[in-house]
Amino acid sequence: MDEEFWTKVWLIGLWIIVICVVFVLGLPFAHTVSTMDTVLFNAEQVAIQGGDTQTLLDMANEEVGSNLPTQMNGRILFESDYDMLITTDVSNGEETLTLVYNQPIFAPFLNFIGMTGPTIPLRFSRTYMLSAQDESGVTYLQ
């Protein structure tokens, strides 16, 4: 066979590998980023409407749990007690919600054989401005 044929075979093989990597590894990562961004946006809206900290945490935990796997093959990917944090900086009038999700890198491949594989912690955070604080809760600026 000639050299031109093998060049085409290698080129097609390379494109198949690239497409598999993009779809199998890239799409779950993009889904995680999109879901976490949506959770943070919705949490900000709850905060703007005057929701308290516990309501905000419950809403974020429910959304993450319904849109992303929280554990896979015995490995915990998201645990609300450790992976959600709200910090308030009263001196600057800000509150920050931080979420950490342990994204399994090779889960689409390894899940078939009952493994999770390595994970990479992804940290997402959003800061809200506080306008006033009183006994009934926190009022937020929009």
Secondary-structure blueprint of this entry?
Layout: H1 3-48, H2 53-67, E1 71-72, E2 75-76, H3 80-83, E3 84-89, E4 94-104, H4 107-110, E5 119-134, E6 137-140
Antiparallel strand pairs: 1-2, 3-4, 4-5, 5-6
Characterization of the model:
With 142 residues, the chain is an alpha+beta fold. It has one domain. Helix content is 49%, strand content 29%. It is built from 4 helices and 6 strands; from the N terminus they run ααββαββαββ. The chain has a 4-stranded antiparallel sheet. The chain has a two-stranded antiparallel sheet with strand order 1-2. Strand 1 and strand 2 (75-76) form a beta hairpin. It is elongated. The termini are far apart. The mean pLDDT is 80. Keywords: Plasmid.
Could you name the key traits of this structure?
142 residues; 4-stranded antiparallel beta sheet; two-stranded antiparallel ribbon; 29% strand; elongated; plasmid
